[in-house]
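wait is this the right file?? whatever heres the structure
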């Protein structure tokens, strides 16, 4: 009698074919279809740890980023706005670095590697800069922004 697990194994012929209910590839050509009916896993979207590891260990990159963002939100709620926002921004920049350095990052991979790195990096950098410029007593002052504000908001006629 054949092993049921061996029978259940699905063989996919190429990267863009997906098996149907019987396990046969729906499409065996490399040509892209006119209409997309399914989605492919993003590049690097595999498990970040071996398959026999527990579920949290397989998804440690996204859990680390979400944990740091959660701690930043908690600091913000506890009236430590600047430090909380800095931690959120740093968590996103670390997410960009993880996406760049690690071959498989699990659910941290949402889009292509390039798009994820640019998105996480730019959002993290923007949040860090805004947290450093928050009033009162900003840690970072950018002179041309102050001049822009004076041109757009005037107190007199």
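ok assuming it is, sequence goes like this
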């Amino acid at each position: 009698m054949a092993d049921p697990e061996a029978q259940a194994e699905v063989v996919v012929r190429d990267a863009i074919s997906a098996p149907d209910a019987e396990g046969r590839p729906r499409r065996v050509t490399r040509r892209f279809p006119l209409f997309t009916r399914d989605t492919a896993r993003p590049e690097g979207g595999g498990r970040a740890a071996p398959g026999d590891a527990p579920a949290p260990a397989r998804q440690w990159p996204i859990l680390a980023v979400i944990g740091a963002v959660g701690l930043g939100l908690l600091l913000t709620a506890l009236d430590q706005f600047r430090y909380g926002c800095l931690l959120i921004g740093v968590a996103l920049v670390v997410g960009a670095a993880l996406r760049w350095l690690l071959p498989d990052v699990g659910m941290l991979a949402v889009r292509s590697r390039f798009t994820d790195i640019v998105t996480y990096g730019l959002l993290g950098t923007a949040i860090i800069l805004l947290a450093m410029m928050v009033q009162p007593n900003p840690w970072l002052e950018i002179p041309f922004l102050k001049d822009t504000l004076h041109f757009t908001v005037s107190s007199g006629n």
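The CA atoms of residues 18 and 37 lie 10 Å apart. so i think its the right one actually
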